[in-house]
Specification:
This protein is an alpha+beta fold. The protein is built from 9 helices and 26 strands. Helix 4 links the parallel strand 8 and strand 9. The protein is globular and about 65 Å long. Its main location: membrane.
Length: 407
């Protein structure tokens, strides 16, 4: 099992395609079964030419990809690079995967099965039996893919399968996005690949936040509006309005964290209902959308239900770095003794990268420091797809890694 990536910054699409094909094939030195291609929005006017140019030079049976305003890959010195701000860039990954069944798919958002449909309807749409326990890489249009419905449906039909990916991104001037599969360019829906057989897809989902205060239990809510919180486990404490609870939490913060709470406050929803001691990484992070001072209520970017546990969180560059490093250390402690990883895909939020850390290539370099010098490729997304607490979700401000190795 082998994995190779090549990144080109040539301004000519023909030149970029030629460079990534030649270098990735030299690095792989074996017939490829699967390919991923990520293309900068600097080439937006030439998206329709990409797959024909690649197909002329490649014999890979399954090839999917998408556009991004920033592209991630390996340069000629085999160093990971994150090329942002719509620089001309093309990243090509080729993988030789003996014993792995590879199935590509394209799904139109308007043709997805109803969420009340049985699992068989989703299995039919994907074309892969649930008994094969596939793992998924999903690339989607931010506007037409009905991505949340798709992720719920896939979790329903394929429980326990890893699912990673991202929403394609375009240029700041409103350039359209591109999705690629086979020899086709799609402007809508989602493309993806299902991998089953001799392969494992490990995931790291770095949401870049740290918890503050202590967990609360949702006592009263309406859709996405927090109306009352209970400060005891399982609703055994004192009921209070969410804004009152937040003010108490902020009063006990350091001065720097108080300043951060003014503009970088989030709410984490615990995904494991049965875990007694919640810790960093156990929460699905969601935006605070607004507050109602008269009612003491807080609106967040997700639906709520009574009995859920929530905790306030903060995010900044240092917190994001510490969160990713903590998750990488956990991964290293689990797999360092028998690390057989061959390659990884990285899906990073447009809000991360150099504008967050004030230095280039931060997440990808930290990843390779802990996981090893395996090829990494991907793009900067309009939203990142990855699992938290047994379910798959669309995230923001997150870096999601999918790490492949044989069984």
């Amino acid at each position: 099992m082998k994995w190779a990536n090549a990144l080109s910054t040539r301004p000519s699409l023909e030149g970029a395609v030629l460079e990534v094909v030649e270098r990735s094939q030299q690095l792989l030195s074996a017939p490829a079964d699967l390919g991923f291609v990520f293309i900068s929005s600097a080439f937006a006017s030439e998206y329709s030419r990409l797959m024909p140019l690649l197909q002329e030079q490649l014999g890979v049976p399954v090839l999917i990809g998408c556009s991004g305003s920033g592209i991630i890959g390996m340069d000629s010195q085999l160093a990971a690079r994150e090329l942002e701000e719509e620089q001309p860039a093309l990243s090509l990954t080729l993988a030789c995967l003996p014993g792995v069944q590879v199935e590509a798919f394209h799904l139109d958002g308007e043709e997805l099965p109803d969420l009340d449909s049985p699992p068989d309807a989703w299995v039919e749409a994907i074309g892969v039996p649930a008994s094969s326990h596939p793992h998924f890489v999903i690339l989607a249009d931010p506007f037409t893919s009905k991505i949340n419905d798709l992720l719920q449906g896939l979790d329903f039909a394929y429980p326990g399968s890893a699912k990673v990916g991202g929403l394609a991104s375009g240029g700041a001037m409103g350039n359209t996005i591109g999705l690629f599969s086979g020899d086709r360019l799609y402007r809508e829906g989602a493309v993806g690949v299902a991998l089953s057989g001799n392969i494992v897809l490990e995931t790291i989902v770095a949401q870049g936040c740290k918890p503050i205060g202590h967990p609360f239990t949702v006592k009263e809510c309406e859709r996405n509006i927090l109306l009352a919180l209970d400060d005891g486990p399982c609703g055994s404490g004192v009921s209070q309005r969410p804004l009152e609870a937040l003010k108490t939490v902020i009063e006990h913060l350091s001065e720097s964290d108080r300043q951060l709470a003014q503009h970088s406050l989030f709410i984490g929803i615990a995904r494991n209902e049965f875990k007694d001691e919640l810790e960093q990484g156990d929460f699905l992070i969601r935006n605070v959308l607004g507050v109602d001072p008269r009612e003491g209520a807080i609106a967040i970017g997700d639906r709520l239900r009574p009995g859920q546990r929530i905790q306030f969180h903060l995010r900044d560059a240092q917190t994001s770095a510490e969160d990713l490093e903590m998750l990488l250390q956990r991964y290293q402690s689990r797999f360092s003794a028998s690390n057989s990883s061959i390659g990884a895909l990285m899906f990073a939020c447009l809000g991360r990268g150099e504008q967050l850390y004030d230095q280039p290539d931060f997440d990808s370099h930290l990843f390779r420091q802990y996981v090893g010098n395996i090829p990494v490729s991907g793009f900067f997304c309009n939203g990142e797809i990855g699992p938290v607490g047994g379910g798959t979700f669309l995230h923001g401000y997150t870096s999601v890694f999918g790490i492949c190795h044989p069984l």
